[in-house]
């Protein structure tokens, strides 16, 4: 199989100009599995494998594409639960099941080969290994379709987490700090985007004013939008939006970071069907067009990124994306940045200057009307705080808003362009979608 | 509870050897005159690999920000919770920063902006780590 390293697909430098395939690649379908808090470790119909197959079938069905038409599979083949996942990310040494569940594949991991074998794809010619996360996968697929490496490509993001938690056991149970951890773990930082962003967030509050608790307006709005997202965890489990009092009284994790600032780990899968704009015309559902994809992987200059560094990184992300899409902040109708921890989203909002929000203005923006029916429908997806940690709500909502199929979440403002991402301030990628190809 | 013990590797061995002698040394790039921490194989600023030399630095800094770890995931530190985790910038080059638990400062009572100086703390027999204490 082709390694992702064999194919030059990244747009991860400054000054690359307008994307050469702008408007010539489309998303023609998507599919979500149910979103469970954890796997019961018994029912193979709700395993990560079964849920991934379900997501693929839904995406193909929505596009009206048969299994034999699919010639590309971009599937994230690593554990979302991570290296510190311990028993959350590995079934062994427990005994496996009958095929296709006779290895970790289908239970804790999914890769393209397992899907090809299990679902019976016959014509796949692009199935890279070593595939990154959804934030970059959508760019990889867009470039592959644009370049003609494949023409009908499933992008699959399984978010397996059997135990529904992260970072328990594994290297976090070690008395020793090895490798890069020798610089962080002796003092208590075991790694993650919460640690990366909480210090810049603290500096942000000091520099611009405001209280951590001001984030409650954003968190509540994410919960409200989540309740309007039929497939998400919150809507399917009736998780009502928290009150201000609930938020302020909730358990601190990395004080001031609270439990409600963190997204909820889930066991779920999602799939998207990317194809050429030309082929999409003949498919079953209304296509949306890819106007640009971009990536970034900025190195930390020292132990801990600070506010200056995070603001510089997000400025550069915005410049790359806007340049490649040939658009500016005022052209973006739908804005779905990453919100896995509530404390990082303001950096993206201000870096991309959506609705004119400048550095230091996010908290007062959150305190205004950011509801989906109002004039500033920020993060209309509900993101991960509102739907569980699928990392895909941002993409699905963007597609639905452009199609006009977002139901109770459909915005009242214009919805012709959408910017969505799974990215941290330092690494990940952005995708710009359009209702029209130009 | 004891802190977690760093395991030196080829690149970091000189650093930890110095710490065990109660000295703070950092990489300095002679090509672009930039201090670097944590150590890397090449200079982050200019890319030079040959220009990196270990140099003693003055152990003076300031507290830039802090959090309190109340529900962390490190087994060995759980009984310490809640504890401070501060970000300390080096006075000699404030773009270089370090973590500190600020020994002697009660949780939540961190004087942000205060001056600190390096100190050394034993985490295992013969293994020190660099820590920072508030200058009175
Ligand atoms: Zn240099």
Helix content of chain A: 25-40%
Largest sheet descriptor of chain B = 5 strands, antiparallel
The CATH class of the domain at 25-166 and 265-280 in chain A is: Alpha Beta
> Number of DSSP strands of chain B?
9
| CATH-assigned homologous superfamily of the domain at 25-166 and 265-280 in chain A | Thiolase/Chalcone synthase
Radius of gyration of chain B using CA atoms only: 16 Å
Distance between the termini of chain B: 26 Å
According to CATH, the fold-level topology of the domain at 25-166 and 265-280 in chain A is: Peroxisomal Thiolase, Chain A, domain 1
Label the overall shape of chain B.
globular
Q: Please state the oligomeric state of the protein chains shown.
A: heterodimer
Rg of chain A from C-alpha positions?
20 Å
Number of H- or I-type helical stretches of chain B: 1
> What is the level-2 CATH architecture name of the domain at 25-166 and 265-280 in chain A?
3-Layer(aba) Sandwich
- Trace the largest sheet of chain A across and list its strands: 2-3-7-1-8-11-10-9
Distance between the termini of chain A: 34 Å
Number of E-state strands of chain A: 11
- The low-confidence parts of chain A are none
- The percentage helix of chain B is under 10%
Average pLDDT for all residues of chain A: 96
How would you portray this structure in words?
The complex is a heterodimer of chains A (438) and B (136). By secondary structure, chain A is α+β, with helices and mostly antiparallel strands. Helices cover 29% and strands 15% of the residues of chain A. Chain A contains 13 helices and 11 strands. Chain A has helices spanning 48-63, 112-119, 134-147, 193-208, 216-227, 233-236, 244-248, 277-280, 307-325, 345-352, 362-367, 383-387, 393-403; strands at 25-32, 72-75, 152-159, 176-177, 252-255, 257-258, 268-276, 288-297, 334-336, 417-423, 427-434. In chain A, the strands form 2 sheets. Chain A has an 8-stranded mixed β-sheet with strand order 2-3-7-1-8-11-10-9. Chain A has a two-stranded antiparallel ribbon with strand order 5-6. The longest helix of chain A has 19 residues, at 307-325. Chain A starts with 24 loop residues before the first strand and ends with a strand. The relative contact order of chain A is 0.18. By secondary structure, chain B is mainly β. Chain B has one domain. Chain B contains 1 helix and 9 strands; from the N terminus they run βαββββββββ. Chain B has a 5-stranded antiparallel β-sheet, with helices on one face. In chain B, strands 3-2-4 form a 3-stranded antiparallel β-sheet. The radius of gyration of chain B is 16 Å and the shape is globular. The mean pLDDT of chain B is 96. At the A-B interface, β4, α4 and β5 of A face β1, β5, β6 and β7 of B. The structure holds zinc ion. Zinc ion (ZN) binds at residues 29, 31-32, 34, 43, 45-46, 48, 51 of chain B.
């Amino acid at each position: 199989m082709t390694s992702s390293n064999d194919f030059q697909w990244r747009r991860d430098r400054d000054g690359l100009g307008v994307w050469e395939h702008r408007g010539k690649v489309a998303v023609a379908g998507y599919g979500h599995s149910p979103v469970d808090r954890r796997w019961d470790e018994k029912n193979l119909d709700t395993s990560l494998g079964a849920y991934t197959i379900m997501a693929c079938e839904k995406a193909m069905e929505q596009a009206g594409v048969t299994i034999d038409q699919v010639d590309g599979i971009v599937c994230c083949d690593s554990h979302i639960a991570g290296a510190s996942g311990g028993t959350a990310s590995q079934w062994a040494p427990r005994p496996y099941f009958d095929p296709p569940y006779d290895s970790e594949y289908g239970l804790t991991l999914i890769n393209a080969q397992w899907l090809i074998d299990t679902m019976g794809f016959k014509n796949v010619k692009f199935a890279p290994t070593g595939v990154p996360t959804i934030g970059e996968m959508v760019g990889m697929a867009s470039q592959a379709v644009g370049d003609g490496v494949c023409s009908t490509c499933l992008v699959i993001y399984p978010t397996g987490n059997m135990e529904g938690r992260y970072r328990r056991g594994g290297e976090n149970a070690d008395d020793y700090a090895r490798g890069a951890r020798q610089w962080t773990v002796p003092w208590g930082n075991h790694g993650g985007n919460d640690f990366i962003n909480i210090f810049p967030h603290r500096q942000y509050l000091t520099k611009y004013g405001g209280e951590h608790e001001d984030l409650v307006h954003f968190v509540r709005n994410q919960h409200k939008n989540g309740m309007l997202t039929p497939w998400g965890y919150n809507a399917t489990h009736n998780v009502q939006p928290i009150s201000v009092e609930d938020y302020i009284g909730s358990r601190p994790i990395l004080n001031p970071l609270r439990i409600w600032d963190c997204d909820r780990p889930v066991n779920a899968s999602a799939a998207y069907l990317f194809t050429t704009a030309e082929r999409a015309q003949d498919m079953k559902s209304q296509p949306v067009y890819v106007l640009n994809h971009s990536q970034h992987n900025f190195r930390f200059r020292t132990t801990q990124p600070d506010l200056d560094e995070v603001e510089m990184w997000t400025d550069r992300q915005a410049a790359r994306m806007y340049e490649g899409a040939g658009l500016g902040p005022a052209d973006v109708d739908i804005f779905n940045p990453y919100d896995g921890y509530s404390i990082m989203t303001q950096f993206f909002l201000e870096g991309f200057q959506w609705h004119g929000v400048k550095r230091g203005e996010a908290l007062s923006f959150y305190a205004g009307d950011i509801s989906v029916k109002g004039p500033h429908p920020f993060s209309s997806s509900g993101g991960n705080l509102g739907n569980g940690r699928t990392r895909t709500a941002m993409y699905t909502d963007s597609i639905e808003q452009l199609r006009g199929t977002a139901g109770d979440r459909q915005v009242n403002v214009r919805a012709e362009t959408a910017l969505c991402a799974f990215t941290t301030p330092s690494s990940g990628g952005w995708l710009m979608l359009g209702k029209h190809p130009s | 509870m004891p802190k977690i013990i760093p395991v030196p590797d080829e690149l970091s061995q000189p650093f930890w050897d110095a710490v065990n002698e109660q000295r703070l040394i950092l990489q300095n790039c002679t090509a672009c005159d930039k201090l670097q921490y944590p150590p890397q194989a090449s200079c982050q600023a200019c890319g030079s690999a040959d220009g990196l030399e270990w140099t003693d630095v003055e152990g003076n800094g300031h507290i830039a920000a802090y959090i309190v770890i109340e529900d962390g995931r490190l087994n060995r530190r759980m009984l310490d919770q809640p504890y401070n985790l501060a970000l300390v910038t080096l006075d000699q080059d404030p773009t270089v920063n370090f973590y500190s638990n600020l020994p002697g400062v009660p949780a939540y009572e961190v004087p942000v902006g205060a001056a600190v100086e390096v100190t050394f703390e034993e985490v295992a027999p013969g293994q020190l780590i660099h820590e920072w204490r508030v200058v009175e």
